[in-house]
Structures are given as C-alpha cells and as structure tokens.
C-alpha cells in the first residue's frame, strides 16, 4: 500500500529560496514549480512528510492544496 500524497505550496522567507530548496527536497518534497520572485515552491509530498517540510529553516508556511471536483466525475 502506498502512502497518501498531497499537492503542497511552500512559502519561504525573502532571499532564502536557493538554500531552502535543497533542504525541502531532502525533507521529502518532489518539486514541480519554483516561483522565485514570489518565494514559493509547489510540489508533492507524502502527508507524513509535511511536518518535516514545516521544520526546514526558512519555511514560512506549507499549505496543502485541496481538490474539488464537481459532477460529472
């Protein structure tokens, strides 16, 4: 059985993105997009890895992206 995976958006402190990016990958983030001007990284991570992402120095917030699907499925 595979672990649940969520889309996440990570906000980092100003100017710390290059240093934080490697630490986020080591903590379990599979990076999709780096929005350097905004200080935001999007990607996927196992749900159990989210506390490790939040603990990375320079991370301000880790937001899980919720999916909403309307009929028809």
At a glance:
This is Ketohydroxyglutarate aldolase. The chain has 73 residues and is an alpha+beta fold. It has 2 helices and 4 strands.
- Supply the number of helical segments: 2
The poorly predicted ranges are none
Average pLDDT = 91
Describe the strand arrangement of the main beta sheet, using strand numbers.
2-3-1-4
Write the element-wise H/E pattern from the N-terminal end onward. EHEEHE
As a percent range, the share of helical residues equals 10-25%
Main sheet? 4 strands, antiparallel
Radius of gyration: 13 Å
Strand content bin? 35-45%
Shape designation: globular
- Cα separation of the termini: 24 Å
> What's the count of strands?
4
Structural class: alpha+beta
Question: How are the SSEs placed, and which strands pair?
Answer:
Blueprint: E1 5-12, H1 17-26, E2 30-35, E3 40-46, H2 50-54, E4 59-64
Antiparallel strand pairs: 1-3, 1-4, 2-3
Can you offer a commentary on this structure?
With 73 residues, this protein is of the alpha+beta class. The protein has a domain at 16-61. The chain contains 2 helices and 4 strands, in the order E-H-E-E-H-E. A 4-stranded antiparallel sheet has the order 2-3-1-4. A hairpin with a 4-residue loop joins strand 2 and strand 3. The longest helix is centred in the N-terminal third of the chain and has 10 residues, at 17-26. The protein is globular. The two termini are 24 Å apart. It comes from Lentzea albida. This is Ketohydroxyglutarate aldolase.
